[in-house]
Design brief:
The complex is a heterodimer of chains A (566) and B (156).
Chain A (H helix, E strand, L loop, with lengths): L1 E3 H11 L4 E4 L6 H9 L4 E4 L3 H15 L3 E5 L3 H15 L4 E7 L15 H5 L5 E4 L6 H13 L5 E7 H5 L1 E3 L19 H13 L3 E5 L1 H5 L3 H11 L3 E3 L14 E4 L6 H9 L2 E5 L5 H4 L10 E6 L13 E4 L2 H12 L9 H13 L13 H12 L3 E5 L3 H9 L8 E2 L10 H11 L4 E7 L9 H7 L5 E6 L4 H10 L15 H7 L3 E5 L2 H14 L3 E6 L29
Parallel strand pairs in A: 2-3, 2-4, 4-5, 5-7, 6-7, 9-10, 9-12, 10-11, 12-13, 13-14, 15-16, 15-17, 17-18, 18-20, 19-20
Antiparallel strand pairs in A: 1-8
Helix pairs in contact in A: 1-2, 1-6, 3-4, 3-17, 8-13, 10-13, 11-14, 15-16, 15-21
Chain B lengths: L3 E10 L4 H12 L5 E6 L5 E10 L1 H13 L3 E6 L3 E12 L4 H10 L3 E5 L3 E8 L1 H11 L6 E11 L1
Antiparallel strand pairs in B: 1-3, 1-4, 2-3, 5-7, 5-8, 6-7
Classes of the chains: A alpha/beta (566), B alpha+beta (156).
Chain lengths: 566, 156
């Protein structure tokens, strides 16, 4: 079919089954927007900042497991999108971002709104393309989607000069992709799998170390099955919350810098780490030489570069965690004896009883942990929770009872403040039937606050619960612990009127200072079905605990005070 | 872990941004590049990049794996048994002892490749350690300019 490059872009998006595209027009991408105007194969959401467009596409991708698509113009449009690309890159989220570029003849001349998008995005994309000829465009679009979703997923940028989107040519969307230099490994080496199985059967204190790769690979049922058939205890990383399900007695909790006592002790004492799609991030391991010191390590990862990057691995298995676990489970069936690990489970239970995940509640002021637990009681499994970055994010990860993967959406790797609200918009577009809550802070929410307008215009009723402590809380916490309480530039006492701000943008606002008001506000916001800010005044100096100081050993945790010590 | 030197050959699709992907990977992840050479391979759309680098075993393993992850990279070869050669061009003033210079170049399997009114140019292609020695030995003839070519290698 003969059409211009702009229409080819739209046809490819439709062919890939994408229902919602997030973006912002501008000079170099105008041809594509002209075709968007004419088509009805997908909906376009006009965010009010390109960063939010990419985060929204990212939230859509995380909520569904499908490729998210964002569209931006050249120059500043693209540079605004970079944080979004980097966020998706660090968490391995499949995105295709289309950026306009100045016409081919202007490239390299410092033209208006020209920037080297390929050069800038190289370290924060899985791959990127500059389209140099119209004839390449269909193949590049097909490859972009393929690369984004296959292997270890990630964001792909397609930078298209304006003259190419105007030019006419023949369009056939390729059915198959053939990139001889790109062949991800899915299967896992059988001999290594056999050896790993032997190690599991011989171990006395095995531990499942579950990472975000399990979510990406949709392997949670297999992980639960492996855990249950051997009654093997499990810990989750920040990115894996929901994989085991909060009620699962084998789940110790989240490990790492803000992990709970039994999780971190489990990792410190295990004799066999079974790592499933996790990458030994520094926020998880603490001091490397003390991490899982007594353990052999089975490392299952689709990205060979993750294996042996930080810790020496005894049983490396490169492959998709789903494919590898299917094989492992089949071979373990009938052989694994759950009784073998009962002493180990008892030890961990004792640890958990000794120092459970806890906080001291108050009648005078709302504790942020209470707010999150209350949300869990009110909404539980049926909500999708996004978050921004900081204390509220850690409290949400610690205290919300996540029951399934893709219920918890946050920026773990890059730690991008301002992620939560636009990501919530993407998640809500993907799952309009679900309540979508962005748990945020008074610092983070202002970093993409313009999305109130987007949410109101398109009637995307996400609820922002602002745990407001009038501080950049996490930095303040570090200043308290490590900088002798010098609160340099973290006091946010000067604040907008959040309720009025939401209402100025045709949303709905609530000021909450008591537990009763909290319940009422949540219920009312859900009922009103409008974008909402629930501004919750919380205890100002509450800290996220337990805490492993940076580069400390996991077993050296600062623990929360207990009820009787308050 | 002690640093070791390694020569890596990378076969890549011959496209415009591929060299920046590779050099950017090294810069971004803090890996060393001692030398880097690149040229298209005959009768194909591939280029052959030879990188001499150094680092701990863990870093060298990461370099190989990270290179592999780049989409346009076909193949990464860490050389162990290899023939390794480097080229150097040295410009000398014409009033130096030309016979000596000729003998020196000859001793390193090279020779005089150009003579002008004011200078002569010697060329040597040999193993990197021998190139180093040649450059040292040439110092007594007051070289005006030294240009090294970077390592190329082929598996034995």
């Amino acid at each position: 079919m003969n059409m211009n490059g702009a229409q080819m872009v739209c046809e490819a998006i439709i062919a890939e089954g994408v229902k919602t595209v997030f973006g912002y027009p501008g000079g170099a991408i105008m041809n594509v927007y002209d075709e968007i105007y004419k088509q009805d194969g997908f909906e376009h959401i006009l965010n009010r900042h390109e960063q939010a467009s990419v985060h929204a596409a990212d939230g859509y991708a995380r909520a569904t497991g499908e490729v998210g698509v964002a569209m931006v113009t050249s120059g500043p449009g693209f540079t605004n999108a970079v944080t979004g690309l980097a966020t998706a890159y660090m968490d391995s989220i499949p995105l295709v971002v289309i950026s306009g570029q100045v016409p081919l003849s202007l490239i390299g001349t410092d033209g208006f709104q020209e920037i080297d998008a390929i050069g800038i995005s190289r370290p924060c994309t899985k791959h990127n393309f500059l389209v140099r000829e119209l004839s390449e465009l269909p193949r590049i679009l097909k490859e972009a989607f393929h690369i984004a979703r296959s292997g270890r997923p990630g964001p792909v940028l397609v930078d298209i000069p304006k003259d190419i989107t105007a030019e006419f040519g023949d369009f056939t969307y390729p059915e198959v992709v053939s990139i001889p230099s790109y062949k991800p490994t899915y299967k896992g080496n059988n001999r290594q799998i056999e050896k790993a199985i032997d190690a599991i059967l011989k171990s006395k204190k095995p531990l499942l170390y579950i990472g975000g790769g399990v979510v990406l690979s949709n392997a949670f049922e297999l992980v639960r099955k492996l855990a249950s058939m051997g009654q093997i205890p499990a810990v989750e990383t920040l990115m894996a919350r929901g994989v085991m399900g909060a009620k699962n007695p084998l789940l110790q909790g989240m490990l790492g810098m803000h992990g709970n006592y039994s999780s971190n002790m489990a990792m410190s004492e295990t004799d066999l780490v079974i790592s499933l799609g996790a990458r030994f991030d520094d926020r998880v391991t603490g001091k490397l030489s003390e991490f899982a010191k007594y353990a052999d390590i089975i490392h299952i990862d689709i990205d060979p570069a993750n294996i042996g990057k930080l810790v020496d691995v005894d049983y490396p298995i490169v492959g998709d965690v789903t494919v590898v676990l299917e094989k492992m489970i089949a071979k373990l069936e009938g052989k694994i004896n759950p009784d073998r690990y009962s002493d180990w489970r008892e030890v961990l239970e004792r640890y958990d009883n000794l120092h459970p995940q806890s906080y001291v509640d108050s009648d005078e002021v709302i504790k942020p942990q209470w707010a999150i637990e209350r949300l869990g009681e009110l909404l539980g499994e049926q909500a999708i929770i996004t978050s921004d970055v900081g204390q509220h994010q850690m409290w949400a990860a610690q205290h919300y009872p996540f029951d399934r993967p893709r219920q918890w959406i946050n920026s773990g790797g890059l730690g991008t403040m301002g992620f939560g609200f636009p990501a919530a918009l993407g998640a809500k577009k993907a799952h309009p039937e679900k309540t979508v809550i962005n748990i945020t802070g008074d610092g983070s929410i202002l970093m993409n606050v313009q999305e109130l307008v987007t949410a109101a215009e398109y009637k995307i009723p996400v609820i922002n619960v602002i745990l407001n402590n009038h501080f950049l809380g996490m930095v303040r916490q570090w200043q308290t612990f490590f900088y002798e309480e010098r609160y340099s530039e973290t006091d946010l006492s000067f604040q907008p009127n959040y309720k009025a701000l939401a209402e100025a943008c045709y949303g709905i606002g609530y000021d909450v200072t008591t537990k009763a008001e909290f319940d009422e506000a949540i219920k009312d916001a859900i009922e009103k079905d409008k974008v909402a800010f629930i501004n919750v005044q919380v205890a100002r100096f509450e800290n996220v605990l337990p805490m492993v100081p940076a580069a400390g050993a996991l077993y050296n945790m600062m623990l929360p005070k207990k009820e009787e010590e308050k | 872990m002690a640093d070791v030197r390694r020569v890596i050959s990378v076969l890549v699709e011959n496209e415009s941004s591929v060299l920046s992907r590779i050099s950017g990977l090294f810069a971004g992840r803090g890996y060393n590049i001692e030398t880097l050479t690149v040229a298209p391979m005959p009768n194909s759309n591939l280029s052959h990049i030879t990188i001499a680098t150094n680092g701990s075993e863990r870093v060298l393993e990461q370099i190989t794996k990270q290179l592999h992850k780049l989409v346009p990279v076909y193949k990464v070869v860490e050389h162990e048994e290899m023939v390794e050669k480097e080229m150097v061009l040295i410009k000398f003033p014409i009033d130096e002892n030309l016979a000596d210079i000729q003998v020196l170049c000859g001793a390193y399997n090279g020779g005089i490749v150009n003579v002008g009114p004011k200078m002569i140019i010697g060329m040597v292609a040999d193993e990197p350690s021998r190139i180093k020695h040649f450059i040292e030995a040439s110092q007594r003839y007051n070289p005006l300019e030294v240009v090294r070519g970077g390592v190329v290698a082929i598996e034995r």
